[in-house]
Task: structure prediction
Amino acid sequence: MSLAAVAVLNLDAVQHNLAKVRSCAPTAKIMAVIKANGYGHGMLRIAKALQNVDAFAVARVDEGIRLRKAGFTNRIAVLDGFACAEELDELLCYQLESVVHSLTQLDIFANTKSLKPSPQREGWVRADPTVWLKIDTGMNRLGFKPADFKAAYQRLSQCPIIKQPINLMTHFANADDINDGKTLKQISLFNETVTGFSGERSLANSAGILAWKQSLSDWVRPGVMLYGISPFPDSIGAQLGLKPVMALHSRLIAVKSIEVGDTVGYGGSWICEKPTTLGVVAIGYGDGYPRYAKVGTPVLVNGQRVSLIGRVSMDMITVDLGIQTDAKHGDPVTLWGEDLPVEEVAQWSDTIPYTLVCGVTQRVQLVEK
Ligand SMILES: Cc1ncc(COP(=O)(O)O)c(C=O)c1O
Result:
């Protein structure tokens, strides 16, 4: 019996969650966001489970190349685009689609005149790339301001190596807050800006798909909901008809009794107030369990809820086993999964569930259910 932590992945749940995307956006094409190693779930495995989507989205050119090298022939958009001429070259070699968000990228495109053969392409023929022109409607991260959109569009339209028409996209800043009017403002600004310009449109992330029908257009870009996680701070995936894909498990590696006045863990910040059966679990921030999980964070031991006590260390956490006084070395522990939503653990850790699943480290084996 291994005491190492494992993340068990339910790939049927990925298909279930994809069906939810389709039911919310029945006429839209789906660009499944599988960046950051498929939100920590293993990018190649998730890509395989999502073969039937219209495109994948990754953040970096390297991620797209990894998909190509693994044999994926699907459309792949690179959300951050390319950073330099060499990266554009790679993007073209591997037939990746680029988001274009900056003048620097426009200049690089303008200077890329001829298509030359590349040693890296491994059977891939170069083709004129599809591009996604990104408009910054209020996120103030990547994208052209509406006032600069027309000039950027015209430059891309005149670029001989780019497939026409250019696709158009924006990204929401506050869509996870259903009471915040900013999303409607972003939608209106986007629609006003692109009126009269041809090209497919894409606005909605998971929160847009679930809560902002006005944002559904030619393409949707679901990320977190595909993994069964709610994009909203006040709900869990199950309440939205989603199924969690990842369950993080480990085991008890020690059980002991502690007395009133004993302290637990680094800094001795937790002080025992009554005789307590303490369990030590083989999981820590070295595995991606959140360092800032508070005392009281729920953990399942033998399927029953117990509470985290003391500080999270690199390889271990400690729990108050409560009435489970007969718990023993090797007993199963779940840190999050179907019966303990990752959204709840994130709340206890003052973070968002995205960071928890993305943060699972290489030490944790990912296995399919
Ligand atoms: C441009 C863009 N679109 C879509 C997504 C997917 O967002 P979510 O995971 O909230 O659905 C992301 C994720 O960060 C993104 O950066």
Remarks:
- The first helix runs from residue 11 to 24.
- The chain has eleven helices and 18 strands.
- The mean pLDDT is 95.
